[in-house]
Amino acid sequence: MKFPNFRLHETQAKLSVLFAVIGIASLGILGVFVFKNFRFESNVILVGTQGTFGKIRQPGVFGFTALTLVVAAIGALLGFNSLGQKRNKKQSFSWIGMFAGATIAALAVVFFIAWTSLKEVVL
User: Fold this and answer.
1) How far apart are CA 94 and CA 29, in angstroms?
2) Which of 52, 55, 56, 58 is nearest to 37 (CA)?
3) Residue 43 above 80 pLDDT?
4) How far is residue 46 CA from its own chain's centroid?
5) 119-121/44-47 β-pairing
6) CA–CA dist 109, 73 (Å, integer)
7) Contact 36, 54 (CB under 8 A)
8) CA–CA gap between residue 77 and residue 75 (Å, rounded)
9) 3-state DSSP call for residue 84?
10) Higher pLDDT residue, 48 or 76?
11) Cα-Cα-Cα-Cα dihedral of 35, 115, 98, 20, to 10°?
């Protein structure tokens, strides 16, 4: 099995888009963990030990926030590194990976802040 050459800027551009797609999937799962049982009337997120997620909800939020931030940062940095290089024929992939990674990282931080400030524990 031949590994891709990570020094090539085209490979970095393709990987940045791949990491952005993985980041979108991770952000979706994070959104489910954070906004389950969100009440629009009182603007709170109800959290309890019973229910669908139960006791794994808070570690899930912390874990998927960290995973999303790491994956999005890798995608953004790979896109930024390969952007503007003369030998890179996939400039659009670099732009997509960089902007998607930055946007996903920002949304992960917003979701985490929403979780910490809006959660209410239900006994």
Assistant:
1) 25
2) 52
3) yes
4) 23
5) parallel
6) 12
7) no
8) 6
9) coil
10) 76
11) -40
Q: Rounded distance, CA 121 to CA 48, Å? A: 6
For residue 40 the two structure tokens come to 């629009």
3-state class (DSSP) for residue 105: helix
Q: How far apart are the first and last CA of the chain?
A: 54
Q: What pLDDT is recorded for position 1? A: 79
Name the amino acid, one letter, at 89. K
Check whether 80 has a pLDDT greater than 80. yes
Please list the residues that pair with 95 across neighbouring strands. Answer: none
3-state secondary structure of 6: coil
| Tokens linked to 68 | 């999303």
38 sits in the region (left: phi over 0; alpha: psi -120 to 50; else beta) called beta
d(CA 55, CA 66): 18
